[in-house]
Design brief:
heterodimer; A: mainly alpha; Methane Monooxygenase Hydroxylase, Chain G, domain 1; Ribosomal Protein L9, domain 1; 2 domains; 3-stranded antiparallel beta sheet; 6 helices; about 55% helix; B: mainly alpha; 5 strands; flat; disordered N terminus
């Protein structure tokens, strides 16, 4: 049946958790694209047939016209599904920038197709350029501040010699605990390298 | 708390409250709340943001001076907290706008009214955003489709208008409050018979209303969103 594969593609998108990416289904995607090409071929064949019979393509309402219409509508529907798939994934990619920052972790990069990785890079650059024009990092301070300092524990070896905003350097060895400025700590927390200690 | 402070300073409460509600931080808070609650993008508060940035810079300098001079840590920490809050408001305000631009970039870019509401930097960002997203859609989907179906704005060449562009839903409901008595608000939702009825708003009362009906009043600053 026409349009079923495209529907599967969109369903895959809808059934996934919001904000999470599933691997790009290039197999199904290509099948839908192929279906589009097929629709277009048949559409052209039907129109050619009408022209050969000397009928006016705009006004004639015969079997060929209705056939062609079905192919056109199926094609448009497939296009909408493909676009929805790519567009919604692009939105998730945008939201990743806010959540995990400008570096793509390996396990997420594997789920993206090549143009998506390119898009992530370009969008990240656009955002960075905006932030540097404004001289303000918008990816920190995601929650309203309660205390300017927080207690954190380092989860992974970040290394020493990291310069903080007050020009002091710190040695973030694994499992060490620190009392840091929230704005300094946030970037490490969002990358999963530190956790906030509460209570 | 406001009233006891006001007594101490012997300023009439009304005046004190108006004074309080016109400080830049209050104005920023208002702009931030409105921006947060409005489904579409509002006008960029160019002057206000400029002033806020100057003040933040001044505060940062003062904080540094104080810490260098070894003022007692408690007052410094309070000062720092105040600064952090102002910074958060500013960042959050800009962030909400950028995220709205990300979401509706095609629509904003083609609608002059919306485009003019962006700041210069936001326009630059939006331009790059449009370019990148368009390129991405073309590379992934459109270039693989038959010729007449390659537009990112239209479903096919026979579509008369741009029917592939996501735009903000203006008929969602928002919570809002008016500062003054307003009358003659035309409701733009509900059954057609009711639409001719005009709606009025008492000052300070919360209303739950369709955004479309009060859009103009939010833009003119008569109504605040919550």
């Amino acid at each position: 049946m026409y349009g079923r594969k495209a529907c599967q593609l969109v369903k895959e998108l809808a059934s996934g958790e919001k904000g999470q990416l599933t691997p790009f289904n290039s197999d199904l995607f290509e099948q839908v694209v192929a279906e589009c090409t097929q629709h277009h071929l048949e559409l052209q064949a039907l129109i050619r047939k009408m022209q050969e019979e000397g009928l006016d393509v705009q006004t004639t309402r015969n079997a060929e016209h209705h056939g062609a219409l079905i192919h056109h509508l199926s094609l448009v529907r497939n296009k909408r599904c493909l676009m929805a798939y790519v567009y919604n994934r692009a939105e998730t990619i945008q939201s990743l920038l806010w959540k995990i920052g400008h570096v793509l972790p390996q396990e997420i990069e594997e789920k993206l197709c090549h143009p998506e990785v390119e898009y992530f890079k370009k969008h990240s650059a656009a955002l960075k350029s905006y932030m540097s024009k404004m001289q303000l990092d918008l990816t920190v301070d995601m929650v309203p501040p309660k205390d300017p300092y927080i207690q954190v524990r380092v989860l992974d070896d970040i290394g020493d010699g990291i310069v903080l905003s007050d020009d002091k350097t710190a040695n973030f060895a694994r499992h060490s605990m620190h009392f840091l400025k929230r704005t300094d700590a946030e970037q490490f927390i969002s990358r999963g390298l530190m956790e906030e200690l509460t209570g | 708390m406001a009233s006891s402070d006001a007594e101490g300073l012997s300023i009439p409460i009304d005046d004190y409250e108006t004074l309080l509600s016109t400080t830049d931080v209050e104005l920023l808070k208002r702009a931030w709340r409105n921006e947060k609650a409005a489904p579409d993008i509002l006008r960029f508060e160019t002057d206000l943001i400029g002033r806020i940035r100057e003040q933040i810079q001044l505060m940062e300098e003062t904080a540094e001076e104080k810490s260098a001079a070894g003022v007692d840590p408690l007052s410094l920490s309070l000062y720092q907290m105040d600064l952090d809050r102002a910074q958060f408001l500013l960042r959050s305000y800009l962030r909400i706008r950028i995220q709205k631009i990300e979401k509706f970039v095609f629509h904003i870019a083609k609608t002059e009214e919306l485009w003019n509401k962006l700041s210069r930097e936001e326009k630059n960002f939006a331009r790059r955003c449009t370019e990148d997203l368009k390129q991405h859609l073309e590379d992934s989907v459109l270039s693989k489709l038959p010729e007449n179906y390659q537009s990112f704005q239209k479903q096919s060449v026979i579509s008369e208008e741009d029917d592939m562009i996501p735009e903000a839903q203006l008929d969602t409901f928002v919570v809002c409050r008016s500062k003054e008595y307003l009358t003659g608000i035309q409701l733009e939702d509900g059954p057609v018979d009711d639409r001719s009825m005009l709606f009025e708003m008492e000052p300070g009362v919360l209303y739950f209303i369709c955004y479309k009906s009060i859009k103009a009043l939010v833009e003119s600053g008569k109504i605040d969103l919550l």
